[in-house]
Structures are given as C-alpha cells and as structure tokens.
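User: For my dataset I need records formatted as: sequence, then structure tokens, nothing else. Please produce one.
Assistant:
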Amino acid sequence: MRDRFRFHGGRISLAFAATWCGRYRADGYDQLAVPEDFGHWLQAAGLTVDAPPVRPAELIQARELREATYRLVHPTTRDRPGRDDIDVVNLCAGHSGLRPVLGGDARSKRILSAQPVRACLAHLALDAIDILTGSLLEHVRECARHDCSILFLDTSRAQQRRWCDMSTCGNRTKVARHRQRDRRVTSNTR
C-alpha cells in the first residue's frame, strides 16, 4: 500500500501535501479522491494500523488541511500567510483525543483515539505547525523538476538539494539533459 503514495518530503505534513499529484500539470490528480483513499493514506503513513473509516466531511477537512499546509509552507507563498489557512491548521490541531502510543520496536509511534481520523488530522496539523514555527521552514523546498510540485525538507549538508527524490525526479531530469546534449551533438556532426 505504501508504494501507492510518495513519502519523499521528510516530514509527514509535507508528504500529506504531496497527495495532490502533478499540481502544475493538466493530468494532475488527487490521491484522496474518495474517503477510503484518505484512510489508506493514513495507514500507509503509519499513523494507523488499519485504514480507518473516513466520513465525507472528514475527507473535506483533510483536503482543506492539505491545501492550507501547502500554501503556508510553499516557498513562494509562505511570506503571505492567509488567515483562512491559519484557521484551518489551528482547527485541525485542536482536535482532541490524540494519544501517541509507542510501537513494538520502541522507535515508532502510532496515534490512538476514539476518533482516529480527527486525531490523525491533529497530528498532521501539529507537524505543519512545528515546521512553520521553527527553523525548518527556511529549509522547505519545492522539487526543481518542472512537472513536480512535491515539497520537501532539505536536510542536505550544503542545503542545495534540488529534487524531491533523486531516484525519480532527479534521475529523470539528468536523463533528459543527457538526451538533449546527445541530440545537439548528433545534429552538429551532420
């Protein structure tokens, strides 16, 4: 299930923002098309053991949180935070019943709650707040590939990471540049 979703952001809230795939492309799509999709994402993200049932209103709130988070942390819009986006994050962060439980490996955690979806929304909102209120915000980047909109936390030593994932976007960009150089060389030798 995890391979259906991309978790290249370095933080759970950034991975959540990536569930709108191809934001800048005509063929972009929402990975959270139906309530069950969000339940499966929560499971794939490791926030729940099983995919919880998600009500349509919870899916709407999840999408609102996703978009608010995206706008608040995106390098081109983060300096102009919208009041509505702030309100959405705060509303989701305030959901009660959140109880982190240490996993069997003593290095992971999952969220338990009488209302698991609301608790997971709170967890995602709290992670976004952590990014927004600390030194991490200046290290949030958008993938440099022209058709990718994934935000990621640049933790590289030189702070010059360009792609959300080297094996996908980075490799595709380098292959495209190589092919373009080969075409130029071939056309110049004719």
